[in-house]
């Protein structure tokens, strides 16, 4: 009883909305159970005794630390991947500038059209015409 | 959140967690103690004893890891508080 309450109180102090915190905590409890099962399966092999042997104890503590670091790393890479995906999408949609500082072709087109309407020739359209002809 | 409500909520969440743990423990001890031969319907003496020990061990491990996790999360929070304090000052 005590452990869950302690963990709960510890986590509920951050500046996040209450229902989100509860969701977070539930997920955390799920992780706790998963890692117990995982570390038990991998570390505990001796069933000639009810006691947890010292080597099984140290194995499971290392297992715990590793599991937590693993989930952190996975979460980090997952976020990175999604940030990359979003940036790629945004660049395609023209919301961000082109990478490497080249002019956005849409902007250039608009400038050329504006120049054409005012009867002037846009320097770029001159270049393009020279290439075309 | 007032402390009584927090306690109630923690108790509810604990019950849920215990139910999940029970399922996982059953699964784990089944895989550890009962070889998938199924030559007869009864649990052999060896399998029965293994299951007793498995349950004892699983529960002990669950408690140990819970204590360690609490330690780690308290440490983490201390670190964050110190970091926040140092940036504030």
TrEMBL record, chain A:
<dbReference type="Pfam" id="PF02953">
    <property type="entry name" value="zf-Tim10_DDP"/>
</dbReference>
<keyword id="KW-0813">Transport</keyword>
<keyword id="KW-0653">Protein transport</keyword>
<comment type="similarity">
    <text>Belongs to the small Tim family.</text>
</comment>
<comment type="function">
    <text>Mitochondrial intermembrane chaperone that participates in the import and insertion of multi-pass transmembrane proteins into the mitochondrial inner membrane. May also be required for the transfer of beta-barrel precursors from the TOM complex to the sorting and assembly machinery (SAM complex) of the outer membrane. Acts as a chaperone-like protein that protects the hydrophobic precursors from aggregation and guide them through the mitochondrial intermembrane space.</text>
</comment>
<dbReference type="GO" id="GO:0042719">
    <property type="term" value="C:mitochondrial intermembrane space chaperone complex"/>
</dbReference>
<dbReference type="InterPro" id="IPR050673">
    <property type="entry name" value="Mito_inner_translocase_sub"/>
</dbReference>
<dbReference type="GO" id="GO:0045039">
    <property type="term" value="P:protein insertion into mitochondrial inner membrane"/>
</dbReference>
<comment type="function">
    <text>Mitochondrial intermembrane chaperone that participates in the import and insertion of some multi-pass transmembrane proteins into the mitochondrial inner membrane. Also required for the transfer of beta-barrel precursors from the TOM complex to the sorting and assembly machinery (SAM complex) of the outer membrane. Acts as a chaperone-like protein that protects the hydrophobic precursors from aggregation and guide them through the mitochondrial intermembrane space.</text>
</comment>
<feature type="signal peptide">
    <location>
        <begin position="1"/>
        <end position="19"/>
    </location>
</feature>
<comment type="subunit">
    <text>Heterohexamer.</text>
</comment>
<feature type="domain" description="Tim10-like">
    <location>
        <begin position="20"/>
        <end position="80"/>
    </location>
</feature>
<keyword id="KW-1015">Disulfide bond</keyword>
<dbReference type="GO" id="GO:0015031">
    <property type="term" value="P:protein transport"/>
</dbReference>
<keyword id="KW-0732">Signal</keyword>
<keyword id="KW-0472">Membrane</keyword>
<keyword id="KW-0999">Mitochondrion inner membrane</keyword>
<dbReference type="GO" id="GO:0005743">
    <property type="term" value="C:mitochondrial inner membrane"/>
</dbReference>
<keyword id="KW-0143">Chaperone</keyword>
<protein>
    <recommendedName>
        <fullName>Mitochondrial import inner membrane translocase subunit</fullName>
    </recommendedName>
</protein>
<dbReference type="InterPro" id="IPR004217">
    <property type="entry name" value="Tim10-like"/>
</dbReference>
<keyword id="KW-0862">Zinc</keyword>
UniProtKB/TrEMBL annotation, chain B:
<dbReference type="GO" id="GO:0045039">
    <property type="term" value="P:protein insertion into mitochondrial inner membrane"/>
</dbReference>
<keyword id="KW-0999">Mitochondrion inner membrane</keyword>
<keyword id="KW-0472">Membrane</keyword>
<protein>
    <recommendedName>
        <fullName>Mitochondrial import inner membrane translocase subunit</fullName>
    </recommendedName>
</protein>
<keyword id="KW-0496">Mitochondrion</keyword>
<keyword id="KW-0862">Zinc</keyword>
<keyword id="KW-0811">Translocation</keyword>
<dbReference type="GO" id="GO:0005743">
    <property type="term" value="C:mitochondrial inner membrane"/>
</dbReference>
<comment type="subunit">
    <text>Heterohexamer.</text>
</comment>
<dbReference type="GO" id="GO:0015031">
    <property type="term" value="P:protein transport"/>
</dbReference>
<keyword id="KW-0143">Chaperone</keyword>
<comment type="function">
    <text>Mitochondrial intermembrane chaperone that participates in the import and insertion of some multi-pass transmembrane proteins into the mitochondrial inner membrane. Also required for the transfer of beta-barrel precursors from the TOM complex to the sorting and assembly machinery (SAM complex) of the outer membrane. Acts as a chaperone-like protein that protects the hydrophobic precursors from aggregation and guide them through the mitochondrial intermembrane space.</text>
</comment>
<keyword id="KW-1015">Disulfide bond</keyword>
<comment type="function">
    <text>Mitochondrial intermembrane chaperone that participates in the import and insertion of multi-pass transmembrane proteins into the mitochondrial inner membrane. May also be required for the transfer of beta-barrel precursors from the TOM complex to the sorting and assembly machinery (SAM complex) of the outer membrane. Acts as a chaperone-like protein that protects the hydrophobic precursors from aggregation and guide them through the mitochondrial intermembrane space.</text>
</comment>
<keyword id="KW-0653">Protein transport</keyword>
<dbReference type="GO" id="GO:0042719">
    <property type="term" value="C:mitochondrial intermembrane space chaperone complex"/>
</dbReference>
<dbReference type="GO" id="GO:0046872">
    <property type="term" value="F:metal ion binding"/>
</dbReference>
<dbReference type="Pfam" id="PF02953">
    <property type="entry name" value="zf-Tim10_DDP"/>
</dbReference>
<dbReference type="InterPro" id="IPR035427">
    <property type="entry name" value="Tim10-like_dom_sf"/>
</dbReference>
<comment type="similarity">
    <text>Belongs to the small Tim family.</text>
</comment>
<keyword id="KW-0479">Metal-binding</keyword>
<dbReference type="InterPro" id="IPR004217">
    <property type="entry name" value="Tim10-like"/>
</dbReference>
């Amino acid at each position: 009883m005590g452990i869950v309450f302690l963990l709960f109180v510890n986590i509920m102090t951050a500046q996040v909305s209450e229902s989100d915190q509860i969701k977070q905590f539930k997920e955390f409890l799920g992780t706790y159970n998963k890692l117990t099962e995982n570390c038990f399966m991998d570390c505990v092999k001796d069933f000639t005794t009810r006691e947890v042997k010292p080597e099984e104890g140290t194995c499971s503590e290392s297992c715990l630390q590793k599991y937590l670091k693993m989930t952190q790393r996975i979460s980090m890479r997952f976020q990175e991947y999604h940030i990359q995906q979003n940036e790629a999408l945004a660049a395609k949609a023209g919301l961000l500038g082109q990478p490497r500082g080249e002019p956005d072709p849409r902007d250039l087109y608009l400038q050329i059209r504006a120049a054409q309407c005012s009867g002037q020739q846009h320097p770029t359209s001159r270049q393009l015409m020279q290439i075309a002809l | 959140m007032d402390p009584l409500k927090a306690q109630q909520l923690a108790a509810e969440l604990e019950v849920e967690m215990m139910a999940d743990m029970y399922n996982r423990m059953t699964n784990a001890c089944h895989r550890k103690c009962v070889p998938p031969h199924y030559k007869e319907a009864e649990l052999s003496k060896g399998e029965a004893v293994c299951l007793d020990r498995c349950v004892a061990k699983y529960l002990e491990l669950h408690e140990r890891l819970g204590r360690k996790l609490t330690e780690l999360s308290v440490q983490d929070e201390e670190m964050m508080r110190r970091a926040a304090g140092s940036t504030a000052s």
